[in-house]
Amino acid sequence: MSQRFTIGIPSGRRFGVGDWFVLLAIAGALYLALRFALTAPGEVKGPEIRLTWTALPGYAALSIGRMAAAYALSFVFTIVYGYIAAYNRRAEMVMMPLLDVLQSVPILSFLPVVLLGLSALLPEGIAAEFAAIVLIFTSQVWNMTFAWYQSLTTISKDLREASAIFRFNRWLRLKWLELPFGAISLIWNSMMSWAGGWFFLMAAESYTVGERDFRLPGLGSFLQEAASQGDIQALFLGIGALVLVVVALDQLVWRPLLAWADRFKLEMVEDQEPPTSWFYDLLNDSRLVQHLSAQFGAWNERLDTWLIHRLKPLGMPETQPSQQWTPLSIGVFALLAAAVGYGGLLAGRMLLEVTPLQWLQLGIGLAATFLRVAIAMAIALAWTIPVGVAIGSNPMLARWLQPVVQVAASVPATALFPAFLLIFLNLPNGLNLAAIVLMLTGTQWYLLFNIIAGASAIPQDLKHTAALLHLKPLARWRALTLPALFPYIVTGAITASGGAWNASIVAEYTEFGGQVRSVVGIGAIISHATASGHYALLLAATLAMILAVIAINRLLWRRLYVLAEERFRME
């Protein structure tokens, strides 16, 4: 096996018709939700949140249930969406622009729209539950989908040829090639998704829009209530409960999955220190688990046999041939285009309410937030690359630091933001520094988890080859480590950049000590528009942020993504 790392910057995809179509569809959907929001109940009173330790077990169970429901939706969406986008070039022309737009929609500005719109259609409790799951889903799904898509597009040509020689159909290729190849990346990004879900749990379970108080019993609402009342003891109780839940999930779910997925590493030399898990060993020794595994294996064989007779074998190349437009497809597309155009027209009418001065403020806010995002990304890259490589390439170190990283990524920084303000308020440009620190917490973990996944996936035989060549540390980084990590860094950076823009809504505008404290930025404009009920400005600011993130993705990250797909794959 050889590893080809050549240099050459390909051109990125241009902003085309598919992008405008998707952007108009998003604008129309936001406008429709805002119109429903105007008919929502004028006053909503959420349930009382008890700040006692006896309430924490029940709250933790409710929060885990919402997180699990959102993750199940995220996983199904990831597998289906990423697979279609990777293998259907016509669909990819629409689906990848759509993914760019969706992952750039600021979650915290989208939540009040979802809540108010659903509350106009559904009972209050059901609307709040559904909106919470949707918010957690949107904080989990994008990095998983990008990671899965990246795995599918970087499978080496020799592995694809081998699957064609064995006459694999779609099911067998998914089972024996694609899922094993992307398993490590999917597991690490699933861990990141859960950490991101915990980060936004406070917003998902406790949100106030004017006189409407949407609250759900859970760890997030417990932390939000403790922070708003200034109850430090309850705040630390809630954070302690969250830490215990994260550590339990690490020991009972993520560490066993990593130990199991080590068999899928692409290498010809076995790792001398593979990841281990006491719970995974306990399950392997269980007779009940062995019996269930045998039953599952028999059922799996029957499923394989049934699908082998119904799905045709695949060959090379795997891209689908171009298809002719049928009258039905033309009619469906015309209706869809008309609906999207009408929705975009209505959204444009609402945008006419925004004054020229407000548009100028939006431009200045975009520039200020972009500068903070760039600083946060630079700091994140500076420390996550060396730390991620150290954790991913050293199983002993990973055994100790992996739970620490998960806990640090899962603790909602929004609960600790008052402490940040106390530290930075007395410093020059203290609010700007505090905003960058909070944005950093919404950025760095996406990079770190992807870099750990990339470092742990480097084949052991390539490491031995580098050692036999007596490469010095700097030469090893240039010839092996950085090229192998490049696709993972780009994947993490795409979602990290979106996370930093999203975190700006909390970082640039906050209420502390009975006063509203804010800095110039697009996030502050979104928060102010939400608090004041200025829906036209909220729509304009949200669309402006979406366009800014899409432009950055197309001009920078998408070009690097193509480079990773074409030049930095192992084969």
From TrEMBL:
Pfam families with a match to the protein in the record: BPD_transp_1 (PF00528)
Membrane spanning residue stretches: 20-38, 58-86, 98-120, 126-149, 176-201, 232-254, 325-347, 359-392, 404-427, 433-458, 479-501, 535-557
Keyword check for Ribonucleoprotein: no
Gene Ontology biological process: transmembrane transport
Record-linked InterPro entries: MetI-like, MetI-like_sf
Keywords from the named record: Membrane, Transmembrane, Transmembrane helix, Transport
Primary location: membrane
Cell compartments where the protein resides: Cell membrane; Membrane
GO CC term (a single one): plasma membrane
KW Transmembrane (keyword) present: yes
Alphabetical list of SUPFAM superfamilies matching this protein: MetI-like (SSF161098)
Domain ABC transmembrane type-1, residue spans: 60-254, 366-556
Topology relative to the membrane: Multi-pass membrane protein
Family stated for the protein in its record: Belongs to the binding-protein-dependent transport system permease family.
Protein's recorded name: ABC transporter permease subunit
Organism of origin: Caldilinea aerophila
